[in-house]
Amino acid sequence: MTTTQQALDVDADRPIEHTRLHIGGAWVDGEGGKEFDTVNPATGRAFAKVAEASASDVDKAVAAARAAFEDGPWARMKPKDRAAALWRLGDLIVADAAEMGRVETLDMGKPYLGARDGDVPTAAGLFHYMSGYATKIEGETIPISAPGSTTPTPAASRSASSA
User: Fold this and answer.
1) Is the distance from CB of 39 to CB of 146 less than 8 angstroms?
2) Is the dihedral of CA 83, 86, 91, 94 positive or negative?
3) CA 129, 131, 137: angle at the middle one, nearest 5?
4) Distance, CA of 154 to CA of 134 (rounded, Å)
5) Residues 113, 49: Cα–Cα separation, whole Å
6) Containing H/E element for 48?
7) Does position 113 have pLDDT exceeding 90, yes or no?
């Protein structure tokens, strides 16, 4: 089967579920309701209309992300809970591999099996792998042992040594 045939065999006529902007935990239309076609490069056919973000939409998304980071649960989570949340995200990606592979195939024009069995598990694996860092990174800098290199000193050490 050719790459183009695989791109056609992914139920291209079934609608894509989420085509709006995700801002502040909600799916919203772009300012002014603008949309654009996203085209399958293997077929040249539009397969979805996607919300177009304005500069104002981007500002709203950045403000929402900043507020979620500073005031949401993530900032107060224990490292083990952050690790569990990242691992769970990887699990959710794997659970939805068929649909994610379908959308990736339509959007990129690549073979479905490569997307479903390659790209999607790789993305999930990155979340699984990185979840381990949530319990390992503590804000310290490891000194570099190369001649002439300098390593920043953590703020607590600087203030203690300058007293």
Assistant:
1) no
2) negative
3) 105
4) 19
5) 24
6) strand 45-51
7) yes
- Assess whether pLDDT exceeds 80 at residue 145: no
Q: How far apart are CA 9 and CA 40, in angstroms?
A: 12
pLDDT band at residue 149 under the 50/70/90 scheme: low
pLDDT tens, residue by residue, 59-88: 999 999 999 999 999 989 999 999 999 999
145: left (phi over 0), alpha (psi -120 to 50) or beta: alpha
Q: For tokens 């694996």, name the residue.
A: 125
98: Cβ–Cβ under 8 A, 6 or more apart, which residues? 116
Please, which pLDDT band fits residue 97 given cuts at 50, 70 and 90? Answer: very high
Distance between CA atoms of residues 103 and 93, nearest Å: 13
Which amino acid is present at 9? D
CA dist., res. 151 & res. 86, Å (int): 30
